[in-house]
Design a protein that fits this description.
The complex is a heterodimer of chains A (about 160) and B (about 550). Chain A has about 160 residues and is of the alpha/beta class. Chain A has five helices and nine strands; from the N terminus they run E-E-H-H-E-E-H-E-H-E-H-E-E-E. Chain A has one domain: Aldolase class I (TIM Barrel), CATH 3.20.20.70. In chain B, the strands form five sheets. In chain B, strands 17, 18, 19, 20, 23 and 24 form a six-stranded mixed sheet that branches. A five-stranded antiparallel sheet of chain B has the order 1-2-5-4-14. Chain B has four domains: about 100 residues, Sulfite Reductase Hemoprotein, domain 2; about 150 residues, 2-Layer Sandwich (Sulfite Reductase Hemoprotein, domain 1); about 80 residues, Alpha-Beta Plaits; about 140 residues, Sulfite Reductase Hemoprotein, domain 1. Classes of the chains: A alpha/beta (about 160), B alpha+beta (about 550).
């Protein structure tokens, strides 16, 4: 398993979760996992509703989001919702066949900070792929700093006319 | 027009470098066909029947003369000396070599152009009314908002891998000249009681399979909320649009399955929850972009009578190929790409260069591509019209048929497209030949024929007064004809007339139908109005009056 990370893991070994369970398993018996020692990770499939994780986020040090193929795009929304609306601060890892160098830039902009590279992907090339752009139009994760960015976050200002 | 700043230029340059590397890896066997496909599509590159097809974006249809010259040069150097203008205001090259595409994109970047997101499951080129900024009854110029949306949609981190393609159109006039009601999102500019700018938001329109007219989900969206609200719509679609069946993946299917009210509810909920993190549109940014679209330096000119005493051919051209202008002393001039021996929308490099020179001399150096696959010189002084006509005629670009039956829309069809069932170009030729008498065309008046080679409806057949759709029957080309569609001011989907007809019967069938119109019309009544008044039955009867139908 080759993982490219945008930030170093904390030295605390408990930060590496001992167990990864599915979203369905967590939803079925959240109380069962509450006392789990050694950290807990959950793996989300593309159709899983991240909102339903809100109450259990404190149990999780890692969330894996699946990209099973080249066209799958729901994980981008899942990531932004977890980071922005639900305030998840743990590791957000993209996993699956679709995690290839040409997708990393957009994934990182949506808040992913770790990438389990698909088979055949070159680690050095993947690192370089994150530096292809130094400008962007939209706001994005601060982990990938842009030299210039056109638009910013923050709802609406009501003075346009 | 909009001019790139340092950010825009750096972005397209970095995009070219990225695609150059991706193409190199693909050709070296390091990137599989499956992995390369979504990457090349998002750079406008299809692999088609004969060769790759490159679709170059012309954002909301606006080109400088220099850009048009570069397109002419690219078509000549990397292709066969011509290009094809599409209904979504883009330019397609039919014969580029895959290995040359990075170089083509690099040349485009030098003149502030690109082919980003002209295909693939992402937000496509944003289109607008071709009379934007000059239409007498306009509420506001839609192009600054199109440009803002273009930038917002370009490589959007969250919405570049949507369930399916996504098309947005913006109109600024009451008359919808951009077919906005049959787009995934149609934005119609409005002013509120205080004069503030906003949009009526329609979602879920579209042609192709299961054509639909968009449902209004917001009567008035304030400009400041534009990008955040678009993100709310796209997020609902990205999460809940179907990905298991390509034929049910457009947003119109989601809107229909939920119902417009429930869909609207979801969008509004998403919008209110996500507001804090939504993309903001600052007044300063709106002002910056709007300033790029300030009016040209019009000369104070009087309206004059330009046709009296002139030759009839010029008078006909003036009547059919020019349009009123907001400024006195000026007219808008159509460059007809519908000559009777041509492919609708096709233009040679030489013609492009001629129009670029004409634009420099007579129309502030700007050219527009239109939804109806013609070009437009928007700001021609009336005293220069006769000269413009002579120049255009010398290059075969003055066929006085705009708005008539032979100003038809057609997709490239079987001759080029990998999806098509039918040779639309050959059928278009037969129609042009059958209707080559201008007096007869003028007598018929305004009739829109729209022709698609397959269900994907690139030729917008559903909204043609007469729609023609190529279908495959056991390996043979047949054509289904529909009547009563419209996308101009009053959006309506046409109704299928009856059984499809053979290829060589299409033109004759149309002729029999328009003869029925001539017999039954009231004075001054347009074809589409007669169809609406008397219904399909009389047309059906005449269309199948001959035994060739099956």
């Amino acid at each position: 398993m080759r993982i490219l990370r945008l930030r170093e893991l904390p030295a605390d070994p408990a930060a590496e979760p001992a167990l990864t369970i599915s979203f369905a398993a967590l939803r079925a018996e959240p109380e069962r996992w509450g006392g789990h020692r050694g950290g807990l990770a959950v793996r989300l499939a593309p159709a899983d509703a991240v909102e339903d994780l809100a109450a259990d986020l404190r149990l999780l040090s890692l969330i894996e989001i699946e990209f099973p193929n080249a066209g799958e795009g729901r994980g981008y929304s899942q990531a932004r919702l977890l980071r922005e609306r639900l305030g998840f601060r743990g590791e957000l890892r993209a996993v699956g066949e679709g995690v290839r160098q040409d997708r990393l830039f957009l994934l990182a902009r949506c808040g992913f900070d770790a990438f389990e590279l698909a088979a055949g992907e070159d680690m050095q090339a993947a690192r370089r792929a994150l530096t292809r752009y130094d400008v962007a139009y939209q706001p994005g994760s601060s982990l990938l700093e842009m030299r210039r960015q056109r638009f910013h976050r923050g709802g609406s200002s009501s003075t346009l006319g | 027009m909009y001019r790139y700043d340092e950010l825009d230029q750096a972005f397209v340059d970095q995009r070219v470098a990225e695609f150059r590397d991706q193409t190199r890896r693909y050709l070296a066997g390091e990137l599989s066909e499956d992995d390369f496909r979504p990457l090349r599509l998002r750079n406008g590159l299809y692999i088609q029947r004969h060769a790759p097809m490159l679709r170059i974006a012309i954002p909301y249809g606006l080109l400088s003369s220099g850009q048009l010259r570069t397109l002419a040069h690219i078509a000549r150097r990397y292709d066969r000396g011509y290009g094809h203008f599409t209904t979504r205001q883009n330019l397609q090259l039919n014969w580029p070599a895959l290995a040359d595409v990075p170089e083509i994109l690099a040349e485009l970047a030098t003149v502030q152009m690109h082919a980003i997101q002209t295909s693939g499951n992402c937000v496509r080129n944003v289109t607008a009314d071709h009379l934007a900024g000059i239409a007498p009854e306009e509420i506001d110029d839609p192009r600054p908002y199109c440009e803002i949306i273009r930038q917002w949609a370009t490589l959007h981190p969250e919405f570049t891998y949507l369930p399916r393609k996504f098309k947005i159109a913006v109109t600024g006039s009451a008359e919808d000249r951009a077919a906005s009601e049959v787009h995934d999102i149609g934005l119609q500019l409005r002013r509120d009681d205080g004069g503030g700018i906003g949009f009526t938001v329609r979602v879920g329109g579209g042609l192709g399979r299961a054509p639909a007219i968009g449902a209004v989900i917001r009567e008035f969206l304030p400009l400041a909320d534009l990008l955040g609200y678009l993100e709310a719509i796209l997020r609902v679609y990205n999460r809940y649009g179907r990905r298991d069946n390509i034929n049910k993946a457009r947003i119109k299917v989601l809107v229909k399955s939920l119902g417009a009210a429930a869909f609207r509810e979801q969008v509004e909920t998403e919008w209110s929850l996500g507001r804090e993190h939504a993309t903001r549109l600052d007044p300063a940014e709106v002002a910056r972009v709007r300033a790029c679209f300030s009016l040209p330096h019009y000369e104070p000119l009087p309206d004059i009578d330009v046709t009296s005493g002139r030759e009839p051919a010029f008078q006909a051209w003036y009547r059919y190929n020019t349009r009123p202008h907001r400024m006195p002393g000026y007219r808008a001039v159509f460059v007809s790409l519908k000559a009777h021996d041509s492919v609708p929308g096709d233009m040679t490099s030489q013609q492009m260069e001629a129009v670029a020179s004409l634009a420099d001399r007579l129309s502030f150096g700007l050219v527009r591509s239109t939804h109806s696959q013609n070009l437009l010189l928007a700001d021609v002084p009336q005293h220069a019209l006769h000269n413009a006509w002579q120049q255009l005629a010398a290059h075969g670009l003055a066929t006085p048929n705009i708005g008539t039956l032979t100003d038809m829309i057609a997709c490239p069809g079987l001759d080029f497209c990998g999806l098509a069932n039918a040779g639309t170009i050959a059928v278009a030729r037969e129609i042009q030949q059958r209707f080559d008498n201008l007096d007869y065309l003028y007598d018929l008046g305004e009739i829109e024929i729209k022709m698609s080679g397959c269900m994907n409806a690139c030729g917008h057949h559903h909204v043609g007064h007469i729609g023609v759709l190529g279908v495959d029957k056991h390996g043979e080309e047949w054509y289904q004809i529909s009547l009563g569609g419209s996308a101009n001011g009053f959006t309506a989907l046409g109704e299928v007339l009856g059984p499809s007809v053979r290829k060589h019967e299409v033109a004759a069938t149309i002729e029999r139908m328009v003869e029925t119109y001539r017999a039954l019309r009231r004075e001054e009544e347009r074809f589409i109005d007669t169809v609406r008044r008397i219904g399909l039955a009389p047309f059906r009867e005449s269309a199948y009056a001959h035994p060739a139908a099956a």
